[in-house]
């Protein structure tokens, strides 16, 4: 049979878990509010989809930049090297 100490310990454990749950709910609510304000996302699913789109756009932009830089270097590296040699 459970004695008073066991019941008290169980009650304290339940109260602690409730506080942790309340804290986690508050953090989740704040995070979702931030997603809505900054990115217009109504839920986590929309945020994940937007994140994927942004990562793909970033990858394309990086590839385009790398290509443009390579083309620039191919076209102008000799001229730039000559300019530096004359200095």
Quick structural summary:
The chain is mainly α and 87 residues long.
Structure write-up:
The chain has about 90 residues and is mainly alpha-helical. The protein has 2 domains: about 1-40; about 40-85. Helices cover about 90% and strands about 0% of the residues. It is built from 2 helices and no strands. The protein has helices at about 5-40, 45-85. The model has no long low-confidence stretch (mean pLDDT about 90).
Terminal CA distance: 94 Å
Helices and strands, in order, run as: HH
Share of helical residues: over 70%
Q: What's the number of domains?
A: 2
Radius of gyration: 29 Å
User: Which structural category fits the helices and strands?
Assistant: mainly alpha
In round numbers, the mean pLDDT is: 92
What would you call the shape? elongated
- Total beta-strand segments: 0
Give the helix tally. Answer: 2
Oligomerization? single chain
Annotate the secondary structure layout.
Layout lengths: L3 H36 L4 H43 L1
């Amino acid at each position: 049979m459970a004695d008073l100490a066991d019941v008290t310990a169980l009650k304290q454990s339940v109260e602690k878990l409730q506080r942790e749950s309340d804290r986690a709910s508050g953090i989740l609510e704040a995070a979702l509010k931030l997603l809505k304000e900054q990115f217009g996302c109504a839920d986590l699913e929309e945020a994940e989809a937007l994140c994927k789109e942004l990562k793909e756009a970033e990858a394309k932009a990086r590839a385009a930049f790398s290509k443009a830089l390579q083309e620039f270097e191919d076209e102008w590296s000799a001229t730039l090297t000559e300019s530096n040699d004359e200095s």
